[in-house]
Structures are given as structure tokens and as C-alpha cells.
Design a protein that fits this description.
The chain has about 180 residues and is mainly α. About 75% of the residues lie in helices and about 0% in strands. It folds into two domains: about 130 residues, no CATH class; about 45 residues, no CATH class. InterPro entries: MFS_trans_sf, POT_fam.
């Protein structure tokens, strides 16, 4: 679900970026101040940045969930997945930057922003078509991530006046800190 939301953020941002590149060519743009066009452009960029910030970690975790850790073959394939995923991300970014910079410099900015928008629409459709075949791992025995973060803050507030040596002795007693004695 989170991956779908981040993809939609990116898609909205790319669509607005394309629109911001098209706006100056319309006669309507003369009624819009250049400052508003600039605000619209940067708002679109921020949407893409926020979407990308949530999308990349989701893709990695979602890809890892597609492999069963209990099967040795799938465990090896999981490691290979991360190698190929990282290689694909880096080579895709290199190729995309190279091609899109050429398109934006020599053809048009609207086409340079429109191509990634269309590619994101295709990626979203492919993702949605495969939703019935994906594996979803739900760890019901674990607490919510928000609850775990909340427990960290509660423990930090409780221990705010405790000295480091007292915390270390307490952690060593619970087995969370290795003993310094040999």
C-alpha cells in the first residue's frame, strides 16, 4: 500500500512538472506571473522528491519479500536480486540522465518531463496488474513500527537523567550489552 502511495506521489509530481513545462507555451501563461510558475515548478519537484524518498526503500523491502528465506534456492536468489536491483538502478539512472538531458536540451522540456511521466504510468499499470501474484509478509507477532519507535522515546525520557555507567550496567544485566570482562 505504501509503495502504491509513493508511486502516486511521483506520478503527480511528474505530471505537474510536464504541465509546468507546457504552461509557458500557452497564451494563458501570460496571466500567470513568473513567480507563480516558479512556485508551481518547485512544488512539482518536491512532490517527486518526497515520492522518491519513500519509493526506493519500499521497492527494496517489497522485492525482498518476494523470496522465501526458508528455501535455499530462493535465499540465493534474494541475494542475486539485490545485486541486479542495484545494478539496474545505477545503469538506469545513468542512461536516463544521458537521454533525457539530450531531449530537454535539443527537443523540448515538456517532452523531457513527459517521457518519465508516461514511463511511470506504465510502471504503475504493470505493478497493479501483478498485485494478485505478489507475496505479502505480515509479521503479526511483532509490534507496530510506530509502537517500537514510541517505546524508544519513552525509554529515552525515562533515562534522560541517568548516567551512562548506570545505563550500561542495566543493559549488561539484560544481556543487550556485551560484557567487558574476559
Amino acid at each position: 500500500m505504501l509503495m502504491l502511495v509513493t508511486e502516486l506521489w511521483i506520478l503527480q509530481g511528474l505530471g505537474l512538472l510536464t504541465l509546468s513545462a507546457i504552461l509557458p507555451s500557452f497564451s494563458i501563461s501570460e496571466s500567470i506571473s513568473p513567480q507563480m510558475q516558479l512556485v508551481f515548478f518547485f512544488f512539482s519537484l518536491y512532490l517527486v522528491a518526497i515520492g522518491q524518498g519513500g519509493h526506493k526503500p519500499c521497492v527494496q523491502a517489497f522485492g525482498a519479500d518476494q523470496f522465501d528465506e526458508q528455501h535455499p534456492e530462493e535465499f540465493k536468489a534474494r541475494s542475486s536480486f539485490f545485486n541486479w536491483w542495484y545494478f539496474s538502478m545505477c545503469s538506469g539512472m545513468l542512461l536516463t540522465q544521458w537521454i533525457l538531458n539530450y531531449i530537454q536540451d535539443n527537443l523540448s522540456w515538456a517532452l523531457g518531463f513527459g517521457i518519465p511521466c508516461i514511463a511511470m504510468i506504465i510502471a504503475l499499470v504493470v505493478f497493479l496488474l501483478g498485485t494478485r501474484t505478489y507475496r505479502y509478509t505480515i509479521q503479526s507477532d511483532e509490534k507496530s513500527p510506530f509502537m517500537r519507535i514510541g517505546h524508544v522515546f519513552v525509554a529515552a525520557i525515562r533515562n534522560r537523567r541517568t548516567t551512562l555507567s548506570a545505563v550500561a550496567v542495566d543493559q549488561e544485566a539484560h544481556g543487550t550489552l556485551p560484557s567487558s570482562e574476559f
